[in-house]
Amino acid sequence: MKLQNLLQQLHLLVPYQGINPEITSIENDNRKVQQGSLFICIKGYTVDGHDFAESAVKSGAAAVLAERELALSVPVIIVNDTTRAMAVLADAFYNHPTKSLHLIGITGTNGKTTTSHLIEKIFSDVNRSTGLIGTMYTKIGDQKFETKNTTPESLVLQKGFHQMLEAGVDTAIMEVSSHALHMGRVHGCDYDIAVFTNLTQDHLDYHKTMDDYMHAKGLLFSQLGNTFDANKPKFAVLNADDSASELYRKSTAAHVVTYGIDHEADFHARNIQMTSAGTSFEIVIKEKVYPINIQLIGKFSVYNVLASIATAFISRIPMEDIIESIESVKGVDGRFELVNAGQEFTVIVDYAHTPDSLENVLKTVQSFAKKRIYVIVGCGGDRDKTKRPLMAEIACRYATDPIFTSDNPRSEDPLAILKEMEDGVMGKSYITIPDRKEAIRAAINQADAGDVILVAGKGHETYQIIGSKVYDFDDRVVAREAIEER
């Protein structure tokens, strides 16, 4: 695409009439620049892309987009906000890919990963070609790629959507984080369906208040647009049992569909029965009743399933196909995942890293535990500090044997993090083992037949971040090895 044609996508206050090279790619990482690239200078938290513009030109950049004047040998186009401009230009460069996809975005504190995987499974089972973007990976057809953020920045997103179309994908499902919404990473994404799971405390290190956090999530629904098209309808799928849904209902012009358990909803679950092997319930849709038997456990799993069923149903997938697919799902990596190495006690690994998610998982464990409940839990460094005493209090409230340990301490002192957890449970019974591997081993070596061990916080993660170093660490592997060595 010619530079002048590309820049026409920006508004009239960004005039450009200089030379008109062919732009072969758009990059905001100078290490990826090739001959003919447009290099976009982005100010990050630790580095400023403007400092690498000269290096980008030496690598072949044909033009540079910046927020200030730079003395370079190629055209420098000045805009007020390069991050916002990058979203516009990436969408145009890749020919507006999401307009050709059935795009589903999922936001909320907990349940995004499980819900996105459930939706992807339903669509795949009816022979829709799918793409998936989220916490665990990006998936295009049958190929998986590593992701750094739950929701990548706009340039990576639009390139990914373009690759999906080239691979024949027709439906894309993505997790949409509050950070991404607040930073504008999803600008240019033409969502067909926006799904809300729930809102509980998290990320207050970034958003500062729950109101700010709630409003950041709401951007997904306001960005569904303000027009109606019978051929391409827009839907907001909202949790009727979460009070934030009322704000999101008011924030969108899209059709609103609700799901819930405790309140009446378009997709309503009733008669929920749980065992250690799964959960059964009835779903009521327009007075029609469908029995559901899933291999997932817990009330939170029912919510995830309801959101997934609602999304598939309004996407015109037959209910019989939806139920067949949902009932075949055995689980999602790191989400209430059983570690079974022949032991007589139960070991569960779960991603629960917020007070609400930890409480939900422990309540579910209580519903089937016969004897003692061990929980190994920590809190991440450089993240919301206010939830540390809350996590500890919940662990002590619902588990018989709470063990506090390190999660991903990052740049913080692990012992200082543990002290802040302990401040929430003064006078209560718990033990602290800073080394995560030793904490897991301690619980497994003490457990008797009928006990349940929950290893919380990291789930699918295969690493631990201590200081500036990333170490191999998988709760599931460590637990299995400890069981086998017992």
List keywords for this structure.
486 residues, globular, alpha/beta, six-stranded mixed sheet, single chain
Secondary structure: elements and pairs:
Layout (H helix, E strand, L loop, with lengths): L2 H5 L17 E3 L9 E4 L12 H6 L4 E4 L9 E3 L3 H12 L8 E6 L4 H14 L4 E4 L4 E3 L2 E3 L8 H13 L4 E5 L2 H6 L9 E4 L7 H4 L2 H13 L12 E5 L4 H8 L3 E6 L6 E9 L2 E8 L2 E7 L4 H16 L4 H10 L8 E2 L7 E5 L4 H14 L4 E5 L10 H11 L2 E4 L9 H9 L8 E2 L3 H11 L5 E5 L6 E4 L2 E4 L2 H11 L1
Parallel strand pairs: 1-2, 2-3, 3-4, 5-9, 5-10, 6-9, 10-11, 11-12, 12-13, 17-21, 18-19, 18-21, 19-20
Antiparallel strand pairs: 6-7, 7-8, 13-14, 14-15, 16-17, 22-23
Percent range for helical residues?
A: 25-40%
As a percent range, the share of strand residues is: 15-25%
Structural class: alpha/beta
Uncertain residue ranges? none
Q: Globular, elongated, flat, extended or rod-shaped: what is the shape? A: globular
Record field, number of beta strands: 23
Biggest sheet overview: 11 strands, mixed
Distance between the termini: 63 Å
Strand order of the largest sheet: 8-7-6-9-5-10-11-12-13-14-15
Mean pLDDT: 94
Number of helices: 16
How is this structure best summarized?
By secondary structure, this protein is an alpha/beta fold.
Please explain how this structure is put together.
The chain is α/β, with parallel strands linked by helices and 486 residues long. 34% of the residues lie in helices and 22% in strands. The longest helix has 16 residues, at 299-314. The protein is globular, with a radius of gyration of 24 Å. It starts with a helix and ends with a helix.
